[in-house]
Batch of 2 targets.
Target 1
Amino acid sequence: MEHGIGKSMTRALVVLSLGLAVSCARKSPPSYLLFTGSLSGYLEACSCPGTPYGGLNAATHLAREFCSDHPDALLVDAGGFTTDTLDTLNAFFMARAMQLAGYDAIALGPRDADARYTGLFSSLPALTPEAPFLRIRDVLLVRVGPEGKPDLSGAPGARFTVFLSSGGRDTDEALAREFNPDAIIESEGDFGQFTIGQTLVVAAVPRGMSLGVLKLSDAGAEAWFIPVTDSTPTDPEVDFILRQYGDAFRQNLALTGAKIKFRGSGYCKFCHAEEFAAWKETEHATAHATLVADGKQDNPWCLTCHTTGYGRGGFSDQEKTPQLAGVTCESCHPGGHCPDQPPPRGNLDECAACHTPDQSPGFNGYDYWEKIKH
Ligand code: HEC
Ligand code: HEC
Ligand code: HEC
Ligand code: HEC
């Protein structure tokens, strides 16, 4: 790593020749690097208890705001921008949104590097297992994946070196000792930061809930976070992509012409009036209304948990399938044909399909069942 010696020497000479009593050379200005990691396909926040604020649209707003004061700041992602389960449509639109957001480098994490995504990210400045480094201005960015130590042969020198890692804490600690980069940004990890020798190790806040800022200067690296709050505006360009994503999803549904395979709770009510009455009082019955109140009823991803069978021959929209709006009986009792072949009885292990840690961090099968039992 160079340290901008050339530049500060020149300045020192200028200062001396002016005869001023300045004893030390003025330092080169710091470099700023904005970072995200583990965006997990969140083009927008879900507003569920686990991710009330965040998403790429809000994080992008914060990045643009920061860049109006620091136009040279770089924007990078440390990995994990695709969803936990393979979703090529979402990945495609995430990639487009990140391109519009102006990302300078995106380190592909293990999920993002899945062979089934090959070709989707060609428009992105992606750091891959095959091309793990990139120098932008005075910063060398290096991807670290699950395979550990990156191959740095042929890497150019730079004033600062930053690793973007989804390799895990043990790997990162070993790399800090071996390579001594200025900073290692982890795509996920315990919050907080620490140093090993000269190296600052800091984990990104997932799902765009905060934007990370890394300040690189000759005095060392510092990091802090700008949180997204309920008053953070969203970026119009990312919101545009979000709408395209919804439209594409719906057109795809129309094409595949999925036949309706769900009947809706009104049908079950004929014979299970008590269960129906109990269910009607729960938040499951109004889960779609929650999205409407938020203006998010067009986001296909929200619909997969806040309605019944969305994208799988169930809910399509409020006009065509009002009986499947919300988490209705068949979300938990799919299939079957009562009374001769009743559907599965229901099981608390299946709640986790929607009550994930990201959406429902306080989920506890027993206590939650008490609130909705029938
Ligand atoms: C025509 C009346 C009728 C309708 C309509 C009906 N059920 Fe049933 N259902 C029954 C009867 C009767 C039983 C009890 C069968 C038994 O005990 O073997 C039953 C049993 C069940 C069970 C319990 C299964 C078990 O293993 O204990 C579930 C769950 C269930 N129904 C869900 C539904 C759902 C969901 C719907 C709507 C999609 C529905 N039923 C519609 C009559 C009906
Ligand atoms: C198809 C997705 C889905 C499944 C499966 C599911 N839930 Fe839910 N659940 C939701 C959604 C969405 C909400 C939020 C509803 C809203 O918009 O208010 C919710 C809310 C709840 C709430 C209200 C939370 C509160 O703060 O009071 C309880 C309780 C609950 N679920 C229990 C369960 C239990 C128990 C199971 C399993 C037997 C289960 N859920 C399965 C989607 C699901
Ligand atoms: C993986 C399933 C899942 C997805 C996807 C999801 N939600 Fe939720 N959401 C839930 C569950 C489960 C709850 C209830 C959590 C609890 O109370 O513990 C919930 C709760 C909420 C609540 C709070 C409801 C209340 O009564 O206070 C809002 C608002 C909400 N979700 C909006 C959204 C929006 C908007 C999206 C899409 C951007 C979305 N959700 C995507 C599962 C999901
Ligand atoms: C969030 C998931 C969920 C939803 C929504 C849901 N159930 Fe259930 N249901 C369960 C679970 C879990 C059980 C098993 C409870 C047990 O074993 O004690 C169950 C049990 C039942 C039983 C068997 C009850 C008994 O005592 O034998 C029937 C019948 C039933 N549900 C019908 C319905 C109907 C009708 C609806 C819609 C009006 C509905 N359920 C909505 C999760 C759900």
Note: The longest strand covers residues 210-217.
Target 2
Amino acid sequence: MRKNDVIYYNLYQALSEKACPVCQCKDQAVGSYLDNLLYEFVNDYRTRDRLRETRGFCYDHSWALQRMGDPLGQSIIYADLIDYLIPSIEKGELDKKKTLLGKNNKCLVCIQEQETEKRYLRGLLACLRDRDFREKYHSSVGLCLPHYELAYQQVSNNNIQAVLREVQINSLTKLTAELKEFIRKSDYRFAGELPGEERDAWIRAVGLWVGSFNTKKQQQSILKQKETD
Ligand SMILES: [Zn+2]
Ligand SMILES: [Zn+2]
């Protein structure tokens, strides 16, 4: 993997954040895909056709798109989907294979998401052969558990396996220490102590366990909400 490759660059940048680099790159790619989709839908009939076929998006991606705003773009998409669906309802055409919401058709964003994830996982293993990247990886929080498992299963090189293991153990050891510090300071006897780095450890723990919850912004908003409670 060359240093000027976009996968290398994106993963390298993501290693500075306190979240799984594969999750971050995947979320970023899905975000741009959703962004482009509104534009493509209006301008490209193939995207429109495919979206009609899948009858929109899955639950998660429908709401992800909704949260991105763009009321006009979404009005155009849904007006089109509804106009396309009404005749099928009228004719009673909806057979068992094609349920009303097209459950058997895979959401376009899900397909894109899975492909991106595979690309970045393979990319990460290739990047770890590079010394600079490996050094930076050592200073990172490693991967979320689902991506760690996938990466570990895919790698055949013993040295790279060892790097993955070492970084993961260091990261989890640090995280559990922070969680314990959070618990300690929650005791009324230590309530006067100022919060430190451990203040958002409970959110990072969930992210490392199941995969990052799309974007830091959402983490920050949860944290802010917690502080004002
Ligand atoms: Zn991940
Ligand atoms: Zn989806």
Note: The chain has one domain: 6-228.
